[in-house]
Amino acid sequence: MSELIRVEHASKVFTSKNWQGNVTEVQAVDDVSLTIQKGETLGLVGESGSGKTTFGRSILNLESLTSGRIFYEGQELSELPKNQQQAIYQQMQIIFQDPYSALNPRLTALELVMEPLMNESKAEARKKAEEILAVVGITGEAIHKIPRHFSGGQRQRIGIARAVVNRPSFILCDEPTSALDVSIQAQIIQLLLSLQKEFALSYLFISHDLSVIRHISDRIAVMYQGKLVELAPTDELFENPQHSYTKKLLAAAPIADPKKAREAMTKSVIQESIHLASEAEWREIAPNHFVRLDK
Fold first, then answer.
1. Where are the domains of the chain?
2. Where is the ABC transporter domain (predicted)?
3. How far apart are CA 205 and CA 219, in angstroms?
């Protein structure tokens, strides 16, 4: 694999002012660096408020970084002319978490998927939209229906079709299965894997669901309080977690076998405190396994 996206020292600070004029700062992303390879799925996991969605959106320039640099195929985006930046951002798309609010309720499925193709002729845009809708399982008269006539899983399929219709190279999947039933989640994951193989897509897959993350990801990055605390190939992370926060996430994950669940809950990691010293060192402890040493 070769590198598609590289993020260096990304930080994002949100500021707000109350009615008294006092300014509050929240460090949502704190000095995060990582790469995403062509054709891979990098899973990004962490609890709510860990900064994972803010980080993902910053790659697409949906959130402006306070500091840091983002590279696409070796080109630093901030140094490119605006027209070149826009062309690259066309190669980056997003699948949103909530399929109910992500789609314009007044447009049909066909119109929704044609919308990103506004620079093409209507006939060509319609052809491409119909083709990708068929790939995601929306066919026949259904393409002329508006979103309220579809189930949650079908709406997410339309959202996926919108994201891939212009053949991007990178897609940010922002918890795309969290609002769906478990059986539908599996179908969506399989669809994403199929599309990745067919169109050579790279994914940053954000989720708090470790079972989903494990199934779809080649590597997994773990975020805690805005910092990247561990990064490793999927099997390595699950079999050999090193950071105390990663251990807690894995220990708290639901386990189907009741006996194994009881054993997991008795592990000392449940009571282990999480350390995140500012001077903690980011170190490679095994091939492609990095951890922020917290003790």
1. 110-167
2. 5-250
3. 10
